[in-house]
Every structure is written in C-alpha cells, then in structure tokens.
Amino acid sequence: MSAYVVRVVIKPVLLFVCFAVGLVYSACEPSVKSNQSEPASRAAQIGDNASVPAVEPINEGSLKKVLRKHKGEVVVINFWATWCDPCREEFPELVKLYANYRGKGMQLLLLSMDEQEQIDGVKKFLGANRVDFLSYIRSGGNFENLVNAIDPEWIGVIPATFVFNREGKRVQTMLGRQDYTAFEKAVRPLL
C-alpha cells in the first residue's frame, strides 16, 4: 500500500473513527463515572475542594509556538481526554514525573482532546489531580491538523505522549497507557 493511500485515505478515516468513538463514549460518561479507576475516583471525591487550574484552547499553530517557547527544556507533551480510561489511569504517573523533574529542566504540557464544551469537566479532573500549571484543550478546527503538528505518522490514538529534547527535536513517541518507569526512562537521560 502506498504512503499516499495511507495518508490521504486510511489516516483520515481512522482519525474520524477515533474521534467518533470518543464523542459517543463522552456522551455516556455520567453512567461510567461509578466504574472509574482509582485516580479518577479520587478526583471525583476531591471535586470542589481542588483549585481550578488554567486551561487554554490550543490549535496546531499555537502548539508549535508553545513548543518553541520551551526550547532549551525537555518537553513531555501528553494528549489525553476525560473519557479515555487509559488516559485517566496514567495521569497520576505524569503528574508525579513532573513533580520530580520540573526543577531539573523538564516541562509537562497536558493537552486534552475533549470538546470545548467539556472544559468544566477537564478543569475538575486537572484540579483533582493537583495540576497547578497551565494546561490546554483542543480548540475547534481540524483535528487532523493538530495531530499532524506533532507527528504526521500518528493517527490520533490516545493516550499519546511525545518527548522532545532540549533542542526541540521529538525523540520519543509513547502510544497507549504508560507507567512512571517508562516515562522516567524516556526523560531522565535527556536532563
């Protein structure tokens, strides 16, 4: 199969399917909440007592600017969503990684792939997980353009974590749920 067929036909179809499944799943979210994992359950218990973190919309252009702004630091960017169980499960591991390495030149960028209308749920989840730094939510616009801004080969599966070295070059792609050890193994040698 040619690269053209993959890029023009298969990738857009897969992106649409992933996005549609996410929308359907998020519509069912209230009935799913009682079955959440430990970190998400803890988030629901903390609820209103957590501080509300800053969340800004981001598109492919502003994402590239944010990455350039952090050149000179090791950047870990994580794409996640509130409706994604593996995303919620690995989230505390990322927060722990950032707590341990933020003073050593690591920057964590959290980018929610939820819809703009779900921003209150995103803020609640971030606050419950003690995120006290600016995070992002996908702005409207073309989903595929945002995905391509990071990696044209990535089809948009989440969770997805991308590690950039101090020169701003992407050096690692981590698709699917990861644990603290995997994140630390990717980041530590770059610091």
Which structural category do the helix and sheet elements fall into?
alpha/beta
CA-CA gap between termini? 40 Å
Question: Beta-strand level of the residues, as a percent range?
Answer: 15-25%
Helix/strand order: HHHEHEHEHEHEEH
Main beta sheet strand tally, sense and closure: 6 strands, mixed
Shape: globular
Helical content stands at 40-55%
Give the helix tally.
Answer: 8
Spatial extent as radius of gyration? 16 Å
Stretches where pLDDT is under 50 for at least 5 consecutive residues are: 14-49
Main-sheet strand order equals 1-4-3-2-5-6
Please tally the β strands and state the result.
Answer: 6
Mean pLDDT over the residues: 81
What would your notes on this structure say?
- The chain has about 190 residues and is α/β, with parallel strands linked by helices.
- Helices cover about 50% and strands about 15% of the residues.
- The chain is built from eight helices and six strands.
- Helix 3 packs across helix 6 (about 120-130) and helix 4 (about 60-70) packs parallel to helix 7.
- Residues about 15-50 have low confidence and may be disordered.
